[in-house]
Amino acid sequence: MTEIDGMGTDRAYCVLAPNPSAMTLDGTNTWLVREPDSSDVVVIDPGPKDDVHLRRVADTVGSWGARVALVVLTHGHPDHSAGAGRFVDLVGGGVHVRALDPRHRLGDEGIVEGDVITAGGLELHVLETPGHSDDSLTFWLPADGAVLTGDTVLGYGTTVVEGRLGDYLGSLDRLRAFCADREAATILPGHGPKLDDPLAALDHYIDHRRERLAQVEAAVAGGARTAREVVEVVYADVDRSLWPAAEWSVQAQLDYLNERS
Ligand SMILES: [Zn+2]
Fold this sequence. Notes:
Blueprint: E1 12-16, E2 29-33, E3 40-44, H1 51-63, E4 67-72, H2 78-81, H3 84-90, E5 97-98, E6 116-119, E7 122-128, E8 137-141, E9 146-150, H4 165-182, E10 186-189, H5 198-221, H6 227-234, H7 243-260
Parallel strand pairs: 3-4, 4-5, 9-10
Antiparallel strand pairs: 1-2, 2-3, 6-7, 7-8, 8-9
The structure holds zinc ion.
InterPro entries: LACTB2_WH (IPR041516), Metallo-B-lactamas (IPR001279), RibonucZ/Hydroxyglut_hydro (IPR036866), Sec-metab_biosynth-thioest (IPR050662), WH-like_DNA-bd_sf (IPR036388)
Protein name: MBL fold metallo-hydrolase
Pfam family, one: WHD_BLACT
């Protein structure tokens, strides 16, 4: 597997947080993005409230002779956002944190579909991609053909759908069309290694969701009624520590199937 810490593109650089788990894979990827040699850095997802990690992010920016111009969040889950306030303090304060969900902002600037974030010549385009969470965003870095997907698409495995499955499936279809249209070169995820074949990765995600839906339908047809009962059938071969998360995911699938029927 690719080395995650230090991976990236010409403009994006990953600092891996030391918070590995079944849910966060190797840990959270904090992305530092800037134009080559620019002194303005945008930090995407400072990560958990872990001083060693946050200092390492700040030190990396410092080692470039640059400064943090802005912090943005792919979504509000704590493994991405909890360290944001502390990070802003560490770099001297005054930096805004922009997020879709107002509860995770610092400063009064929001962020919505179609926004273009600029810093020192850098351009990041904002796409709303709900599903993993209601507030999930994806950032498109056109200069590198890179898509920063947060937890909407991970470097391996599959993501948990906490929001509505219909939204998530729509986001995957939309990202696939977007990546095909823009000839995206790489996905830079919120966890795990980067993916240099975005369309293959998205097809894999879309196929996986369809398969799981078919399995859930079959489990229901076989008599399973609650999300837990479905999980016991469909996720029988999956580590039990992931079952509570799977239950969320299955509930979303049951809701989706009920809405459709
Ligand atoms: Zn995450």
